[in-house]
Amino acid sequence: MRKSLKVLAICFSLLFLLGVARSQVNDRPACTTGAESCADGTAEHRSNVSDCRHRLLSCDPTKLTEREATALAVAEYQRNLSDCENGWSSCDRSTLTPRDQRAVAAQADARNVSNCTSGLGRCDSSMLTTAEAHAAAAAQRERNVSACMYGWKECDRSRLTQPETTAATAAARDRNVTDCRDGNLCDHSQLTPKQAKAAARARHDRNLSDCTDGADSCDYSQLTKAEADALAVSEHHRNYTACATDYGYCDRSRLTAAEAAEIPAEPAQAPR
Questions:
Q1: From 53, 56, 58, 176, which residue has the greatest number of CB atoms within 10 Å?
Q2: Over 50: is that where the pLDDT of 10 sits?
Q3: What is the mean pLDDT of the chain?
Q4: Per the structure, how many domains does the chain have?
Q5: How far, in Å, CA of 29 to CA of 42, rounded?
């Protein structure tokens, strides 16, 4: 009895191994005899699998094994589902399961509500509920008010209330004052005498700072005599220090006779 059971167990083991071997053979691409031709066939098969995964015209689905074809079908479904979830035109909802179709539809509705509310992306107002339409309209009004307050080109002043128009006008006036004071493009005719005087003073101070720093934007003609004299003294001192320390740009021709006598003469350069 034990011998019979042992023989039966061996038979079952052999049948199992034979089934596994057949399954592995069925999942391998066909290969001709010869090691070199077999390697070439495997490489060609893997290239075809890659072509199918990347949707290339060179893909031959008839050469895929059953498992490869199943894996490709799963990948294609997931790719299409992702396209649908993102609202892309490549989406084919008809291939989705009913549950996935409902989820995608809910995501599309939420995306549409977000687009209508934010003013970004494609908005289909006909798909909004009454409450959603009111919320989107309120958000659009707030965006227009902000655009007018900041002077953006999207501003539609015809849609402002009277208080909003007054506030937007005041904000535009304040921006113009700031622009004139900071040296930006502005309308000087809109300034009050006091604002014009402050803007001129700010421009003068910026020019003085540029001249002090040696910037190329300096306009020396705009300096007062006292400012020009002070800058001249400062530059003379800088030049003297540079000549005395041999550090920085030195122009000996601008030294006084006494200063030149104090500073050793420059050593003659050896001929090259």
A1: 176
A2: no
A3: 86
A4: 2
A5: 7
- Per the structure block, which two tokens stand in for 214? 């040696």
Cα 270 from Cα 161, distance rounded (Å): 83
Is 47 among the domain residues? yes
In contact, 42 and 2? CB cutoff 8 Å: no
Tokens of 181: 């004071």
Check residue 55 and give its pLDDT.
86
Whether the predicted pLDDT of 45 surpasses 80: yes
167: Cβ–Cβ under 8 A, 6 or more apart, which residues? 149
CB 83 within 8 A of CB 90: yes
Whether residue 247 is contained in a domain is answered as no
Domain region containing 129: 97-160
**CB-based contact 81:100 (threshold 8 Å):** yes
Distance CA 100, CA 79 (A): 13
Q: Is residue 243 a contact partner of residue 250, using CB atoms and an 8 Å limit?
A: yes
146/122 same-domain check: yes
- The total number of residues written for the chain in this structure: 272
Contact status, residue 40 vs residue 30, Cβ threshold 8 Å: no
Q: For residues 250 and 268, is the Cβ–Cβ distance under 8 A?
A: no
Task: Find the helix or strand (DSSP H, E) in which 216 lies.
Answer: none
Query: 230: which 2 tokens?
Result: 């002070």
CB 91 within 8 A of CB 80: yes
Does the model's pTM come out above 0.85?
no
Nearest Cα to Cα of residue 48 among 67, 35, 29, 33: 29
Contact 102, 110 (CB under 8 A): no
89 & 102 share domain: no
CA distances from 254 to 138, 215, 235, 238 (A): 71, 21, 10, 11
Q: Which two tokens stand for residue 246?
A: 């041999």
- Report how far apart the first and last C-alpha atoms of the chain are (Å, whole number): 114
